[in-house]
Task: inverse folding
């Protein structure tokens, strides 16, 4: 076989592997879709879901609805790296923009672009397979480069919150404002709920256990299969964080973006969710010391030489505040936003805010009402209704 043909047959083999497996039971909904290996060096989710597949087959339990498992970055998984050319979990907002990779010619296109097209195709296939009114539940399985307890990441919509709240782990809200172009945002924009599960450190054996526990509970909570009380208790216990990390909601207070992971060095010893004080030395970027600009908890400190997110700092959000915001989101107040000073209407669901005029609380007000807030430039915010 010529080189080109070999490449082609390899590609078509990968395409077949894109939907790793699927199972359907009686009845219509719900449809669970599990993404594994979006980052090629994070095998825990894949191992866990395959164990579950075997157990379902062994016990022959009757299922309601369906489960699909979609493989992420297949080439990166083969090589055991996070990605080859570009991060597969940062490119999902580039379609139909000027940065869309399809404008590049073949050789310059990152390998991940091809992967993303196949994943997109698989998502469409799955959705088309089912009736419009059926309930879809998407989840994306990850692990972190630092030591960590399990946690959930979600874009802050009420549907996502309700789904995430059924798990006894810390929940990080509104991550889409800091980390753009994720697969979860893409799914949310299609109108479906989606949460990300982070199981712990990449190669920690517990990460596989926790991924398995999360997936069983997801399957149970969405009524695809029934677990017995004992198993529910066992899985919930194996997910729980240590007592120093309450399983409440958190929001991002600070995000350290870096240009070159090779030049970034996190100071050793930080574990995800560790409490830190303002001015604590955290990392070196191009040799320069970076101190914590605010109090809070360190989040996703980067201990690998790939990626653009050095670390984040998060803080607990009170349940009361969340309750108020859920109430307000369904209210009529949206109509009056345009009358705030410095606010102008961009479209039916978005506003532009001039910060030179609207100085106080603007971000908080828009957050409270469920908007996604993006910095357009130094003195302009864009707020989209989620
Ligand atoms: Zn990941």
Result:
């Amino acid at each position: 076989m010529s080189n080109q043909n070999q490449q082609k047959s390899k590609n078509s083999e990968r395409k077949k592997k894109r939907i790793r497996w699927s199972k359907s039971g009686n009845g219509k909904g719900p449809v669970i879709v599990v993404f594994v290996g979006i980052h090629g060096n994070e095998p825990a989710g894949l191992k866990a879901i395959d164990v579950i597949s075997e157990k379902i087959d062994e016990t022959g339990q009757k299922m309601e609805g369906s489960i699909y498992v979609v493989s992420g970055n297949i080439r990166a998984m083969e090589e055991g790296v996070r990605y080859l050319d570009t991060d597969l979990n940062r490119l999902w907002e580039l379609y139909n923009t000027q940065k869309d990779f399809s404008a590049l010619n073949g050789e310059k296109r990152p390998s991940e672009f091809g992967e993303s097209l196949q994943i997109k195709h698989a998502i469409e296939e799955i959705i088309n397979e089912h009736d419009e009114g059926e309930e879809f539940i998407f989840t994306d399985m990850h692990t972190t480069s630092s030591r960590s307890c399990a946690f959930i990441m979600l874009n802050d919509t009420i549907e996502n919150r309700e789904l995430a709240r059924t798990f006894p782990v810390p929940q990080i809200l509104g991550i889409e404002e800091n980390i753009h172009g994720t697969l979860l945002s893409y799914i949310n924009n299609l109108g479906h709920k989606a949460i990300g599960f982070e199981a712990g450190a990449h190669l920690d054996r517990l990460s596989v256990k926790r991924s398995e526990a999360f997936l069983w509970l997801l399957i149970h909570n969405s009524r695809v299969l029934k677990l017995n009380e004992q198993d529910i208790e066992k899985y919930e216990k194996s997910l729980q964080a240590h007592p120093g990390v309450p399983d409440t909601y958190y929001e991002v207070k600070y995000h350290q973006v870096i240009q070159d992971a090779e030049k970034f060095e996190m100071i050793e010893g930080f574990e995800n969710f560790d409490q830190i004080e303002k001015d604590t030395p955290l990392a070196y970027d191009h040799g320069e010391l970076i101190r914590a600009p605010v109090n809070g908890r360190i989040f996703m400190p980067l201990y690998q030489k790939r990626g653009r997110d050095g670390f984040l700092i998060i803080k607990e959000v009170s349940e009361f505040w969340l309750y108020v915001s859920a109430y307000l989101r369904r209210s009529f107040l949206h109509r009056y936003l345009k009358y705030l000073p410095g606010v102008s209407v961009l479209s039916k669901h978005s506003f532009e805010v001039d910060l030179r005029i609207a100085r106080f609380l603007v971000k908080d007000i828009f957050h409270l009402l469920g908007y996604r807030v993006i910095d357009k430039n130094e003195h302009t915010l864009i707020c989209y209704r989620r």
